[in-house]
Amino acid sequence: MWGSMSLSAIHHCWLAVGLTLVSTSALGDESDVTVPMHGKGRATYYVQAQVADLDINDFMVDTGSGYLTINEQTLNALQERKQARYVKELRAILANGSELVIPIYAINQLRIGGCTLLNVEAAVFPGRTRQILGLSALNKAAPFTFSVDPPELVLSNCARNVEASSKQPALAEATVPAETAAISVTTNPPHP
After folding, report:
1. Which CATH fold topology does 33-187 show?
2. Nearest CA among 94, 93, 188, 80 for reference residue 138
3. I want to staple 129 with a disulfide (CB 3.0 to 4.6 A). Which of 92, 125, 143, 188 is the partner?
């Protein structure tokens, strides 16, 4: 097929396919939620999020973090309200060679802008450490887009995720590959 086409025709064909893919994803879905981000320092972006019925806090957006990360202070408040459930622990080896045991809890609810997610797994770090919006939350709202110009997150399938999560009593662990570009991250939602 390609043998009889000129190089220019092949480029036009691929350009048309690329534009179709870009325009389809740029149109968005009616369940897409756009959440503004704000910068704090160099190349670090934050969103405001609410864990369960606690106060709204800043969460650093980190697509390299496998988990939503909360601190012990947040966990204690969630446990008082019975809105967190212990799931497991992970052992991490730090750069200096020391080992750290990190407890993982299922958080009943996380609100990021107008997007509500249920049963999100969160790693708990000591003290009042910075809280991070990682892939355990972002994958529930996949596909998502991280944009620096303008600084915003576009989360998809929020309504579907709320409904689907409420039907699943137990958390399922899934690894979803993320394709990373300079200003855009897109993940594929897990198939039920």
Report:
1. Cathepsin D, subunit A; domain 1 (2.40.70)
2. 188
3. 125
